[in-house]
Design goal:
Elements lengths: L7 E5 L4 H12 L3 E6 L2 H13 L3 E6 L5 H15 L4 E4 L14 H11 L1 H17 L2 E6 L12 H21 L6 E8 L5 H9 L4 H8 L10 H12 L10 E4 L7
Helix pairs in contact: 1-2, 1-9, 3-5, 4-6, 5-6
């Protein structure tokens, strides 16, 4: 119950889904958690859930595509807690369109959040961690950052960019006086509110559900905590010899 005791963790996109599960899991293991999102109601609910469980957390409104808001969030974190030890770049959006139907505006919006937002987090988060004595950055990519998915070109491009940004940063940050480790996590199909909404959108039929489950050789959808537990490992000192690595949690889908 104390795998990240004494650490301060900032998690973007933590109003629901993987971000919320990760925030709860890190808090359960002793971290002080800064929850950020642009969905204020969900973000505050995450904080309340952490506090109800006996943890410590605070919420900040945060558009991860904004350079200014990243600087403000990092500054507020340091002012409040005096350090930053863990950053989970989780916030993302997905555009599911064919390339011919994807406009330049679609492409730019997708990348402004899912890739530019991660870059800004890496840039400002690593600087704060170097001042704090080092730390761990975990970038949430996807199996879409490893293999191509139909009608998801913009998303695949963004998540593939996250994977290689992580590797380039790992080489650079290994040279810092106060080392900053950086790794990427690649979830498969996880039972998040977004996936549940998609199933519901198409009638909530067993056929649609089975189509998602077919993407899992283990025959079932993953749960948010499956990813949160992987993030916890990378956030903790248990993974102190890992940087620039890809942690794939997809029930074997990308292995086929």
């Amino acid at each position: 119950m104390a795998r990240v005791e004494g650490k301060v963790a900032l998690i973007t996109g933590a109003a629901s889904g993987l971000g919320r599960a990760t925030a709860l899991r890190l808090a359960e293991e002793g971290a002080k958690v800064v929850v950020t999102d642009w969905e204020d109601r969900g973000g505050n609910e995450t904080v309340e859930l952490i506090k109800q469980a006996g943890g410590e957390a605070s919420y900040m409104h945060h558009d991860v595509s904004s350079d200014e808001e990243w600087q403000a969030v990092i500054a507020a974190t340091l002012e409040t807690y005096g350090q930053l030890d863990v950053l989970v770049n989780n916030a993302a959006v997905i555009i599911a369109k064919s390339i011919k139907d994807t406009t330049l505006k679609d492409w730019q919006w997708q990348n402004s959040i899912a890739l530019d937002g991660v870059f800004l987090g890496v840039k400002y988060g690593s600087a704060a961690m170097e001042e704090s004595g080092g730390g761990s950055i975990i970038n949430i990519s996807s199996i879409a950052g490893i293999i191509g998915l139909d009608k998801s070109a913009a998303y695949c491009a963004a998540k593939g960019g996250v994977k290689l940004l992580t590797k380039a940063a790992a080489v650079e940050f290994a040279q810092l006086k106060n080392k900053v480790r950086i790794n990427s996590v690649h979830p498969g199909v996880i039972r998040t509110p977004g996936v549940e909404a998609t199933i519901k959108k198409y009638g909530g039929s067993e056929k649609i559900k089975q189509r998602f489950e077919a993407m899992s050789p283990l025959g079932e959808l993953g749960e948010p905590n499956d990813i949160a537990n992987g993030v916890l490992f990378l956030a903790s000192d248990e993974s102190k010899y890992m940087t620039g690595s890809e942690l794939v949690i997809d029930a074997g889908y990308s292995a086929g």
